[in-house]
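Bit of a strange request maybe. I'm writing a small parser for structure token strings and I need a real example to test against, not something I typed by hand. Could someone generate the tokens for this chain?
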Amino acid sequence: MIPAFIKRGFVLLTLVFTLSACQNLSRISIDSLLGEIRDPPAPPDVAQQQTPAAPEPPSRQDTFILADDSDVIGELYVITAREEDTFVDLARKYDLGYNELRDANPGVDPWLPKEGTHVILPARHILPDVPREGVVLNLSAMRLFFFPKRKPAEPRIVITHPIGIGREDWPTPQGATTVVRKVAKPSWHVPASIRAEHAAKGDPLPAVVPPGPDNPLGEFALRLGFESYLIHGTNKPAGIGMRVSHGCVQLFPEDIDTLFKEIPIGTPVRIVNQPYLAGWRDGILYVEAHKPLDPKRSAAAFQEQLRTRLDKTASERGVIDWPRIDKLVDLGRGLALPVERNQPDIEGALAAIPVSRAASQPILTASATVPSRPWYVQAGSFKSPHTARRVSAIIEHLGPPIPAQAVANGGYHRVLAGPFDSRAEAEANARRIEASLGTKTLVIDPGI
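Reply from user aminoacidic:
Good idea to test on real output. This should exercise your parser:
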């Protein structure tokens, strides 16, 4: 029998992201994590027809020299996926957001890209159209830009990282504010509504969660002038690059670690929503188009703003290919590409990116020492090995991760989480899996 949470040939699951004091505890529809099947396929001759292999791109390239006459930083790369790669792993390795990778690679399964699949790394970014000082958050791009004060005799730089932002029903506020406080090892003061919800389920929470691996704020937090809003780390890094919070801004643990040291109290913070970006580099005009966060707001309004801005400079610096811009906007893949008529078209620009060798071992792995009498949790049994592997990959990326594997058994493929040292540990992880995936589990006694 096919479980209720298997539909249309792929898994419709939910992940639980435990959120901060300015957030809520809720499930996130995995249409946002597993909806890749419904995405349109990649344009022909783009995903698999790049030029011969090149060295692997640098991991975590986040700091760039900021030229006075340039609005564009970074480059696009293409890597060859390995069987064990997932978009969550690749995002963490290359300091990208999950949605950035998914939008850039429509038609590719983010949990099982398949051995040999070419994956575009959208590591070229156009700076938002705001003053370049302090911290700038572009919600549509789900990306932070930090402009440190220039040091004597050194070039000006910009630091950029992916972010997790507020959900549709709890959007991150826009506007100008400042960093008013820095907190290392923050405690999580659990909102009353979340405590009541957990108590009703027989899973009571304390009024305050102390620092540690169970704290959703992570190790560091920057409190903003907007009341109850923070820029902070997370104990669930799989949510970076998604709309997962109750308004706060989340960063990978290693990114907030660096920014916490660099950003002083009083730093200005601008939060903007710019899905369509335009900028120049080396005399070439680029456009970067993301899917607007608000589906009710007409994309035409944003496009008109972009058109008005570009019309002012078109006569000065080249001829703009407006049909190409319209296509980039329609695709919404978040790729910064040239849009002048004398530059390669979209397919040509992507096909010209050298293909790097297979990605190195992902940094997000769940490992465990097998105890003498191991306990396991069965999280499902499926006819399709592909489905079983996808479910095990999702479980391995819960925060904190749970080791899991797909095991063939009599024509079916079981998903086993573990091993665990005791029944109590197995039952605790079974509850986490059930809460996250919305499915029943079975604790397996080592004596059976």
